[in-house]
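Private note to self, pasted from the team thread so I don't lose it. Backbone tokens:
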């Protein structure tokens, strides 16, 4: 965790946008759930609950509650786009590792990352 003028951050937040994903899994809820679970495990996070929903005719939103906070994904397969939120608290979880897994599995041609430290004490 980073230090600021006011102290130590309570959490790390990564906003990840994946563009032109090559993966066919963007419209497969079971595969997408496995990918998000894998990213949580590789990040050394503790999975508590998960919820995924497939929209008609396409699109998926998914959420994994972890002891350290959460991972969420929203996909638009018709645009080959995924919006991902990785938020972890404490020092145990490795959110950057989750990000690496998601990029490797969904195979975007490009992506953008915003990292933000949350809650300074």
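Design output:
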């Amino acid at each position: 965790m980073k230090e600021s003028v006011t102290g130590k951050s309570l959490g790390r937040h990564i906003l990840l946008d994946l563009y032109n994903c090559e993966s066919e899994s963007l419209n497969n809820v079971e595969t997408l759930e496995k990918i998000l679970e894998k990213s949580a495990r590789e990040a050394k996070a503790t999975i508590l609950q998960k919820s995924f929903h497939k929209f008609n005719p396409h699109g998926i939103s998914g959420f994994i509650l972890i002891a350290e906070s959460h991972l969420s994904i929203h996909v638009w397969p018709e645009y080959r786009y995924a919006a991902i939120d990785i938020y972890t608290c404490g020092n145990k979880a490795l959110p950057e590792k989750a990000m690496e897994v998601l990029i490797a599995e969904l195979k975007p041609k490009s992506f953008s990352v915003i990292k933000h430290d949350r809650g300074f004490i």
